[in-house]
Amino acid sequence: MADDIMIRPADGTWVVRAGGAVIGESNAALELTEGNHDPVIYFPREDIGMAFLDRTDTTTTCPEKGVASYYSIMSKSRTYDDAVWTYEEPKDAVAKIKDHLAFHVQDGVTVEQL
């Protein structure tokens, strides 16, 4: 793994909300820290209400993690474009985040520990 990326189990139970609705809750989330960036919580896909997500054509490439695919969140009040990312085929060094989703925290989208 790249020296500046660490992945560990996230302590406790984590919840993600969009537009006030809980769209996922997990006690098996992962915390990824990378360099000086804030930690990112990755939720197991099976702990997220995938009916709230709509796959987009957006992709980005990280030299250390691989190609990220994106989803928009469809809430009752609005759509949060490309607010979720996942590495479906992550590089071997970060294989633990396969089948996990991360959320772009913004006005209306929160990730918090219960």
Structure, described:
- By secondary structure, this protein is an all-beta fold.
- The protein has one domain (5-107, 109-113): Domain of unknown function (DUF427) (Metal Binding Protein, Guanine Nucleotide Exchange Factor, Chain A).
- It contains no helices and 10 strands.
- The chain has strands spanning 5-9, 14-18, 21-26, 30-34, 40-44, 53-62, 66-74, 79-86, 100-103, 109-113.
- It has a 7-stranded antiparallel sheet, with no helix packed on it.
- Strand 4 (30-34) and strand 5 (40-44) form a beta hairpin.
- The termini are far apart.
- The relative contact order is 0.26.
- Residues 15-104 form the DUF427 domain.
What is the assembly state of the chains in this entry? single chain
Unreliable spans are none
Q: CATH class, please?
A: Mainly Beta
Q: Report Rg.
A: 13 Å
Describe the strand arrangement of the main beta sheet, using strand numbers. 1-4-5-9-8-7-6
As for the CATH topology, it is Metal Binding Protein, Guanine Nucleotide Exchange Factor, Chain A
Number of strands: 10
Question: What is the approximate shape?
Answer: globular
Share of residues in helices: under 10%
Quick one: biggest sheet? Answer: 7 strands, antiparallel
Distance between the termini: 30 Å
Q: Give the mean pLDDT.
A: 95
Structural class: mainly beta
| Beta-strand proportion | over 45%
Please name the CATH architecture. Answer: Beta Complex
Q: Count of helical segments? A: 0
Give the domain tally: 1
Could you give me the name of the CATH homologous superfamily?
Domain of unknown function (DUF427)
Order of helices and strands, N to C?
Answer: EEEEEEEEEE
Domain DUF427: 15-104
